[in-house]
Structures are given as C-alpha cells and as structure tokens.
Design goal:
mainly alpha
Length: 310
C-alpha cells in the first residue's frame, strides 16, 4: 500500500508549480500554505482543471485564484452556518413548544413512548431516539448551565431546555417520530406538508454538520433531494428528464429551504451576504468564468430574484 510522505513548504510549492500553477509571490504563498494547510487549499484545484482526474491546472491559473476560491468557500460556509443556526433554534423552539403544550414539561412525561407515533414500523426508531435524548440528559444534566440549574432546583429538565443540548440531527430525527397531528401543526407554521419538512430538516442537518466541521461546501450535494417548488419554475431552472438540474440537493436547495423557513428580512440578509461574496470572487478569479462556479454551487444566473419572489 502506498503511503503519503511529509512535504515541506518548498516541496509543496514545487508540486503546485509543476502542475502549472502560477505563483507570483513565493514567500506569501508559503505563509498561506503554512497557516491554512496545503491539503485544504489544494482541495479547490478541481474547478481550475480541464478534467476531475487531470493533474494540470488550466493555463494561467494563479495561486491567488486558488486561494480566492478557498476563502470564498470559507466565507460562504460561515454565512450559511449563521443562518442554519437560526433555523435550528427556530425548529427546536417550535417542537419543544408543541410537545410541552400537549405532553407536559417534565422529561418523564414528554418522553413517554405513547406521545410518539404508534406505527409498528417505527417502534425501534422511537426507542432509539428517546434513548438518545435521555442520554443527553444524563451527559449534560450536570455540565450545561441551563440543564444543571433545572436539575438542581426542580429535579427535571423541561423540553425547552433539553433542546439546547440536542444536535440538529437528533431534532430532525425527532420530528420523524412525532404523531402525525403534531408533525402537521409544526409543518403548518412553515406552510409546508409533513413530508417536505421532513426532507428539509434532514438536508439542513447534513449541511449544518458540514459547515460545523469546515468541509468543502460549494459543490456539496446530498443524496436526498427537495421536492419541486414554485421557485424552481419561477426562476426558469432548466430540466433534464423532467427533473430540475439545480436547486434539488445542492447549495441552492439550501437557499430555497431558507427562503421558506427564514423571515423575509433574514432571507434578504443572507442573499445580500452571499451575493457580496460572489461579487468579490468574480473580481478575483479570471481563469474560469463565474457561470461555471455558479453552476457548481447550483445557483441559476438570476438567483438573486429569489429574494423578491412570493
């Protein structure tokens, strides 16, 4: 089995230059590689190549362009993460309100199996998810300030406090085991059907984890796809075999979800912030057209129109 060996900064520069990358300031490039990690920056090389498998950069590609793509993705990831956390907090608040109102505020009450779907096919799932929630009570009960306060003073942790220590993944799973009438009440808040909200939460959780771990965002795609929406049609997104080419399981799908789940002001803000980063990138990258980058992140040419669509 082949093994990767350590390459010092001079060797890293030599590799990049041997593949056709133009480096105007070697010292600055070394500093960036040392600070940011060669592996992470080189992860953006594919957009500057003729083919995914090829080794050579497109003629004229500069280190500044490669690093520009890296910083664009970082800034985009930070923007997305900020608004994903808003949605995460919202859905946690809504679910905890729904369950507390109907089933009580003590964990022994709201975690009673009879409060969840009675579908025999989901019995194991109900047990698994409620066990995860109880485990979070045990783990965080004496560690997190809010949970410790309630345990010490009242002897239980209400649902609206527990959700603070639950991951988005657990909360998205929790929605799938609620009784249908509870799912419907929550989905109605967003003017969605239950199936669509279930898919939305799963995809949001996937992107949220990616952002939290600082993985490459711009070309990430999920296995699940969001249902067709009126926004796909209004933006004239092209179709292949009766399926929209963009905005289904890519970053633009997240924008469509956010259009639905954020307030109008919040969505206007994220669209402005994302647009600002795209404009900056356009002024920094010249070897590949902006249309190619937009295609990779799933954004249609007129994506900014999404802000004013009803």
């Amino acid at each position: 089995m082949k093994s990767k060996i350590f390459k010092n900064l001079d060797q890293q520069i030599e590799i990049l230059e041997s593949r056709g990358l133009v480096i105007a300031d070697i010292d600055e490039a070394k500093e960036i590689l040392f600070r940011e990690n060669y592996f992470f920056i080189n992860g953006y090389r594919h957009i500057f190549k003729d083919s995914f498998q090829g080794e050579m950069f497109l003629p004229g590609t500069t280190f500044d362009e490669l690093y520009g793509m890296f910083t664009f993705d970082r800034n985009l990831r930070n923007i997305m993460f900020k608004y994903l956390l808003i949605i995460e907090n919202n859905i946690k608040s809504i679910i905890s309100y729904q369950m507390s109102k109907k089933y009580g505020f003590k964990d022994k009450d709201y975690l009673d199996p009879k409060n969840f779907t009675q579908d025999a096919m989901k019995t194991r799932q109900v047990k698994d998810i409620t066990s995860k929630m109880r485990r979070q009570i045990r783990i965080n009960g004496r560690q997190h300030t809010a949970t410790m306060h309630y345990l010490s003073n009242y002897g239980y942790i209400p649902m609206w406090i527990l959700v603070k220590v639950l991951s988005f993944g657990i909360v998205s799973e929790l929605y799938t085991i609620l009784k249908y009438e509870d799912q419907l009440d929550i989905a109605n808040f967003y003017h969605l059907d239950v199936e669509t909200l279930t898919i939305y939460l799963s995809i949001l959780s996937n992107f949220r984890n990616l952002c939290a771990h600082e993985d490459i965002l711009y070309d990430h795609k999920t296995q699940k796809k969001i249902p067709d929406s009126r926004y796909h049609a209004l933006l004239n997104i092209p179709m292949i075999d009766d399926e929209y080419k963009r905005g289904k399981n890519d970053l633009f799908a997240i924008m469509i979800i956010m259009k639905v789940m954020l307030t109008a002001e919040e969505f206007r803000n994220i669209a402005y912030e994302v647009g600002y980063e795209i404009d900056l990138l356009e002024g920094r990258v010249h070897t590949v057209p902006l249309s190619k980058i937009l295609h990779m992140i799933g954004f249609p040419t007129g994506w900014r129109e999404l802000v004013d669509l009803k």
